Amino acid sequence: MTRRLAVVAKKVGVSEATVSRVLNGKPGVSESTRQAVLSALDVLGYERPTQLRGERARLVGLVLPELQNPIFPAFAEVIGGALAQLGLTPVLCTQTRGGVSEADYVTLLLQQQVSGVVFAGGLYAQADAPHDHYRQLAERNIPVVLVNAAIENLGFPGVSCDDAVAVEQAWRHLASLGHERIGLVLGPADHVPSARKLAAVRAVAGGVPDEHVARAMFSIEGGHAAASRLIDRGVTGFICASDPLALGAVRAARRRGLDVPAQISVVGYDDSALMNCTEPPLTTVRQPIEAMGRAVVELLNAQINGGQVAAEELLFEPELVVRGSTAQAPRT
How far, CA to CA in Å, does 43 sit from each of 36, 87, 89, 195? Predict the structure, then answer.
C-alpha cells in the first residue's frame, strides 16, 4: 500500500498524504486533483478502492495514424501529459497497416463511453477518405479536436500549424540561396495540408511547374522515390511535407552520387526528434508542438465541461530552422 501511494503521488506530482485522502474519500482535495489521482490509478494498473469503483475513468481517445514519424509520438506526449494534469486518462489508438482502422477505434471508444477524442493526423485530412465515423461522434455530441488541417464541413474545432507560412519560409530560404529549380515532395492529392502547401507555393512563386511537384506516401521510402523523379527533372532545391520525406530526398541524392547540400538542398517539415543529429543536420520548418498541444487540450476540456467552442481552426506560426542540409545553389 505504501509503495502504491508513493508511485501514484510521483505520477500526479502531489504528496502521498493527498493520494491517501483521495483513496479514503476524505475532504480537503480539489476535484481536479482527485480526478488526476484516480486517472493515475487506472494508468498504472492499480485497482481502485471498492467505494470508488463505480466511478468511470474519464477517458479521452488519442488517435494517431502511426508512430514511425516522430512528430506523432511528440504530439502524444504533450497532449497526453496535459490531459493527465486535468484528471483525464489518454487512451492511445495507433493504426497499423492491416490492423485496427480509425473507424474501428471510434467504435471501441464509443463503447468505452469516452469523454472526448483527439485526432492527430488521420482520414479527416484526406478529402477522398471515408468520414462516417466522424459523423457518428458529432451525432453523439462527443467532444472532438482535430490536429492539422481537416476537410471542410466536419464541424469540429481544429488546431493547425500554418501550412502557407511554413512553405513560404522554406521557398524564400531556398530562393535566397540562388535555387531556381525548386521542387515539392508532398502527400497524396487529396491531403489537405499538402494542398495548402502547394497553393501557397503557387502564390508566392507565381506558379510552379507540375513536373516539379511529386506525390508520395509519408515515409523515407516515399520521399526517396519522389525525390529521385525530381532530380531527373533538374530540381536542386527540395521542400518536403515531412521530415521523413526530407530524409528520403537526402538518400535519393546520395544514391545518385550528389552531395547534400553542395549540389542538392533539402528542407523538411515538423522539426521532429533527432533532425539536428542527421548527416547533414536537417533544415526544417518547426511546428510549435507544445503550444499546439496545450491549445488542443484546452479546447477539448472546454467542451467536456459543457462550454461552447466554435468549429473553427486555430493557426499557429511555424519557425524555419536552418541547419546543414541547405546551401548556395550549384553554379551551372
Answer: 10, 11, 7, 39
Domains of the chain and CATH, by start: 2-52 (1.10.260.40), 59-161+289-317 (3.40.50.2300), 163-287 (3.40.50.2300)
CA distances from 17 to 6, 7, 53 (A): 10, 12, 21
Query: How many C-beta neighbours within 10 Å does residue 37 have?
Result: 23
Grid coordinates representing 247?
A: 530524409
Q: What is the pLDDT of residues 181-208, one digit of tens each?
A: 999 999 999 999 999 999 999 998 887 8
pLDDT given at position 51: 59
Say whether pTM exceeds 0.90: no
Q: What is the DSSP string of 24-78?
A: TT-SS--HHHHHHHHHHHHHHTPPPPGGGTTSPP-EEEEEES-SSSTHHHHHHHH
Parts of the chain with a pLDDT under 70: 1, 45, 47-48, 50-57, 332
